[in-house]
Amino acid sequence: MRTRELPRLGLAAQADLATMDRPFVVMMLKIDTTGNVVDVQITHSSGSDNVDLPCQRAAYTWWFEPQKDPKTGQIHPEQIEFTIYF
Question: Between vectors from CA 26 to CA 21 and to CA 27, what angle results, nearest 5°?
Fold first, then answer.
């Protein structure tokens, strides 16, 4: 994976993170055949929208190497789970 943008956490997010014990965000990313992220769903919230939403926005800028079917060589859209730990 190559990231284009890291989550930009504001002061409210940083304050929220300071009060959490081992915060993390889990997202389900839909990747198209060109490797672009086309949909992001939060499947496990950190407990703060101030943290979750910047992670979700950043994920839309990411690019992943498209996976090829080993038998046919064709590229198919895929869905992956991605976790960000703070």
Answer: 155
CA-angle at 38, arms to 32 and 2, nearest 5°? 75
The CA R_g of the chain, rounded to the nearest whole Å, is 15
Taking the C-alpha atoms of residue 45 and residue 5, their distance in angstroms, rounded to an integer, is 20
Nearest by Cα to 86 from 62, 41, 52, 60: 52
Closest CA to 1 of 85, 86, 82: 82
Condensed to tens digits (0 to 9), the pLDDT of residues 48-65 reads: 999 999 999 999 999 999
Beta bridge partners of 75: 68
What pTM, to 2 d.p., does this model score? 0.87
